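ESCALATION

Customer reports they have been waiting on this structure for their group meeting. Please prioritize. Original submission:
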Amino acid sequence: MAREAALTHLGRRGEARMVDVGDKAETERVAIAEGRVVMARKTLRTVLKGDAKKGDVLGVARIAGIMAAKRTHELIPLCHPLALSQVAVDLKPDPTLPGISVRATVRVRGKTGVEMEALTAVSVACLTIYDMAKAIERGMRIEGIRLIEKTGGKSGRYRAAEA
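Update from on-call: job pushed to the front of the queue and completed.
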């Protein structure tokens, strides 16, 4: 029988705590997350033409995702502040959805992983797309936000199963 993993953010009495990473080795850590905004074809065409009332939807969403990754520790209570070495947010129009696929890659050389930073970047980029295009369509859906891959640290590599 497999042993259950302990929740690292809980103390012995069940109280929330920040994990002590002081004795951990610094390693190169990378996390990749993805999500998507599903919208009507007309909305996607408007976004791609750059005709949304609020401006360049994809450009603003990319910057919002990068900024969000850098501020994850301010949004999620027990996350460590990290000196990120790279945040890349890629937005890809997908006519088969129809909508926009969002992928974030985050890197750091540090003592703790960057999964939350990658997930936060994707979440905020998707929310920004919704915010900037909601005047066209309020029925858009944000879907499939998940960790795709992470490397580094004691637990090594994780790769999600294909969706």
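Sent to customer with the following note: The longest strand covers residues 27-38.
Escalation resolved.
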